[in-house]
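Hey, I was hoping to borrow your eyes for a little while. I've dropped the whole record in just underneath, so have a look:

——
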Amino acid sequence: MLRNMSIRKRLLVILALVYVLSMIGTIGGGYYLLNQDALREAKEKIQLFATVMSANQEFMSYNVRPDLMDLLPDTYFPSASVGIVMMSETAKIIREDYPEYNFKIASPNPLNKENLSDAFENTIIAGFDKGNYEEWEGVVTKVGKRYYANATQIVARKSCIWCHDTPETANPEMVEEYGRDSGYGYELGDIVGGRFIYVPMAEADKITMEKLAGFGGGISLLFFLAMLIIDRIIVATVVKPIENIVDVAGDISRGKMTREFEIIGNDEIKLLAEAFNRMKVSLAKAMDILHK
């Protein structure tokens, strides 16, 4: 196909192919790098949030709950004695200023039905139980939305058993609040759930696509300008000189021997013009000999 095109069209087609291949490589590579940057940012957000949650839980476990149990051993005060309640309430406060964080204590056997794990969370918790990992992190799609998620296992400890052994041994106020159907039967060391933190990727994906569109538009503009400039250069330095040679050669073939092949420059086209001039001189001499 290229053989049947003019030099000008052939070069433009080649440049267009280079542009398409360059855009594929640029957009693909750019998307990968920008997506990695978005994932890194999401991971940093999750690590910060998780650190806050862990610090609060640790403070409650070692400072608040022991004193509370000593001072008020029979008092039902879950906000200061139950880690899950404390973390959930803390997460609600944080989300007032940072709504992009989604926090959930998930369990297939929760005391609070709001903490019932979904299919994805059940898969991760099962992985904890099998010993595949102690912490999971990655991208997940839920209800058509992408999230970067972090999950850490929740192990039944001694402090958990007094609430989750049987309804008969649990605090009566707690049983009255949550019922007797779920959240019991925990044994020491059991993997009973997971702490899940989700950061939506929608905003990061939007920014990534905007950056790609801007970058792709800039590259396209540069290629367009480059093609215009190269086209003008090709027309001025190749196409027109060749057209001039063709025009002069046509006139000479019709007997106008006064025409000269004149080319400005010092390239291959100049050498071609000089060769045609020598051929014209030889032709003129041959014609003179024939006339004599």
